[in-house]
């Protein structure tokens, strides 16, 4: 049971901790900043965009390949989205699974939304889903490294791979 709880909840707790640090440092909404700057997608590790959503690598990944599917506009309540807007979010989650299966060959996934700060959402007003690839026996490699920053080169290298796979799958042109 303890192991089950750890597997289920740890990724979301990590988001809360790290995004609180982000907010303190930047004072804004980084998802809005990313959405507004498509010319900086490479720097921000945005893997692809759809008309209303984008898929981005988590800067503080729980495991290698941790992605987020974010709504473009600053809206936090999924019940406020139209059918087609929420459909785009769901499609993004589905396609992120396809991409990660191809790119990093996980054995499982944790997928979820944190709605509200008490549920662990670091950016409670900007809807985003987490897609965390899992392997049997994996550990949170951030904790293993003992620092909140993943080596930027490793993120960049994986980003280039994800972009290539996203192109091959037709998610991005
Ligand atoms: Zn926002």
How would you describe the overall organization of this protein?
By secondary structure, the chain is of the alpha+beta class. 46% of the residues lie in helices and 16% in strands. The protein has 6 helices and 5 strands, in the order H-H-H-E-E-E-H-E-E-H-H. The chain has a 5-stranded antiparallel sheet with strand order 1-2-3-5-4, with helices on both faces. Strand 1 and strand 2 form a beta hairpin. Helix 4 crosses helix 6. The longest helix has 25 residues. Bound molecules: zinc ion. Zinc ion (ZN) binds next to helix 2.
- The pLDDT mean sits at 82
The CATH architecture term is 2-Layer Sandwich
Question: Total number of helical segments?
Answer: 6
List low-confidence stretches.
1-10, 144-149
Overview in brief:
With 173 residues, this protein is α+β, with helices and mostly antiparallel strands. Helices cover 46% and strands 16% of the residues. The longest helix has 25 residues, at 2-26.
Entry keywords:
173 residues, alpha+beta, HIT family, subunit A, five-stranded antiparallel beta sheet, 6 helices, 5 strands, 46% helix, disordered N terminus, binds zinc ion
Any chance you could write out the topology, listing elements then pairs?
Elements: H1 2-26, H2 30-35, H3 41-44, E1 46-49, E2 53-57, E3 67-71, H4 83-104, E4 108-113, E5 128-134, H5 141-145, H6 152-168
Helix pairs in contact: 4-6
The chain binds zinc ion.
């Amino acid at each position: 049971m303890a192991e089950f709880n750890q597997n289920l909840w740890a990724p979301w707790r990590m988001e809360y901790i790290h995004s609180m640090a982000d907010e303190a440092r930047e004072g804004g909404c980084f998802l809005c900043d990313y959405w507004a700057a498509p010319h900086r997608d490479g720097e921000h590790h945005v893997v692809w965009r759809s008309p209303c959503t984008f898929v981005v690598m988590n800067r503080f990944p729980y495991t290698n390949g941790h992605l987020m599917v974010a709504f473009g506009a600053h809206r936090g309540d999924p019940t406020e989205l139209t059918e087609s807007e929420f459909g785009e979010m769901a499609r993004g989650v589905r396609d992120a699974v396809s991409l990660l299966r191809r790119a990093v060959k996980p054995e499982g996934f944790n997928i979820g939304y944190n709605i509200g700060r008490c549920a662990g959402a670091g950016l409670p007003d900007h809807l985003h889903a987490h897609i965390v690839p899992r392997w049997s026996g994996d550990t949170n490699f951030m904790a293993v490294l003992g620092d909140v920053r993943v080596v930027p080169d490793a993120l960049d290298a994986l980003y280039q791979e994800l972009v290539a796979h996203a192109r091959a799958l037709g998610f991005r042109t």
